[in-house]
Specification:
The chain is an alpha+beta fold. The chain has nine helices and 13 strands. It folds into two domains: 105 residues, no CATH class; 158 residues, Orthogonal Bundle (Tetracycline Repressor, domain 2). Strand 6 and strand 7 form a beta hairpin.
Length: 291
């Protein structure tokens, strides 16, 4: 669980903030530019390096966040540009407040959640391949993840019988329609768009749409060979699973009145989106901890 969001600021737990105005320690950033260390922030969740540099025009000293290290994931994560202007006029407390405000927007606008998803799905879940089947099953159960689209969740399976009309042809399932598109010229470039369009058509069925909206779990399509659309032994990009979740959100919003939709959008900056960003959608605060 991340620290609290309060009054437009991110408030971490057990904060340490060290500033060295006279530092001569040089840090090389991702663009190979050598900048001077200014401060380090750390709490239970993040370790953040801040570096300073002199503006070549104003000659004033500015600063920026050079890196954010996610302590739980044990990886650096992507972050938007975070700057501090004319730092010589700012106290240490003011520097800290600016950082907390930047972290608030980073978390509340979804950039943090996106960065965590990218790390988890694309790069750093390979360790799950070494787990036994039982370990993965326990992981899925503990984190409210549906990975096997059979039984009560067979309606999510692309093999589930349904009527699909796509580009003037009739099909009996999403799989049948999707496979038929593989002979087209731009299939491999457009396959995500094709799959999304087919799913939208599938869930025009009112019963299927309602069943999707009634779910409250995270979807991962666990299979034996496709680490892009799904996961193989827990590792992969899981694009199909993400599509199902995105459609579920869209269908739920369609049911809201204009006033309710406005209220939901406003809550993105405080409750709803922050809850997702904090990992509550996975029903645990430590879902990425290794074995």
């Amino acid at each position: 669980m991340l620290g609290m969001i309060k009054n437009g600021l991110y408030e971490g737990e057990h904060i340490t903030f060290c500033v060295d105005r006279n530092s001569n320690v040089v840090i090389e950033d991702k663009d190979k530019e050598k900048l001077t260390f200014l401060a380090v922030y750390s709490d239970d969740d993040f370790t953040i390096n801040i570096v300073k540099y002199q503006n070549e025009y104003t000659k004033k000293w500015n600063a920026k966040v050079e890196s954010i290290y996610h302590n739980e994931l044990e990886r650096h994560i992507k972050h938007p540009a975070m700057f501090f202007e004319d730092i010589e006029t700012l106290s240490d407390d003011e520097l800290l407040k600016i950082l907390k405000r930047n972290m608030y927007f980073y978390i509340s606008d979804g950039k943090y959640e996106k960065a965590v998803k990218e790390i988890t799905y694309y790069k750093y879940r390979e360790y799950m391949k070494e787990w036994s089947y039982r370990q993965r099953e326990e992981y899925y159960i503990n984190n409210n993840i549906v990975s096997d689209f059979r039984g009560e969740y067979f309606f999510l399976n692309n093999d589930c019988p349904c009527r699909i009309t796509y580009k003037g042809k009739e099909y009996n399932s999403v799989t049948e329609a999707y496979e038929d598109q593989k002979g087209t010229e731009f299939f491999y470039k457009d396959k995500l768009t094709i799959l999304h369009n087919l799913l939208v058509i599938k869930f025009e069925d009112k019963d299927l749409r309602q069943r999707l909206k009634n779910t409250d779990c995270h979807f991962e399509w666990e299979n034996e060979e496709d680490e892009y659309l799904g996961t193989v032994k827990g590792s992969g990009a899981n694009k199909f699973g993400q599509m199902l979740e995105d459609l579920r959100t869209a269908f739920r919003l369609e049911d809201q009145s204009k006033e309710e939709v406005t209220e939901i959008k406003m809550n993105v900056l405080n409750k709803a989106n922050i809850s997702n960003a904090l990992g509550n959608k996975y029903k645990t605060g430590n879902i990425f901890r290794k074995g």
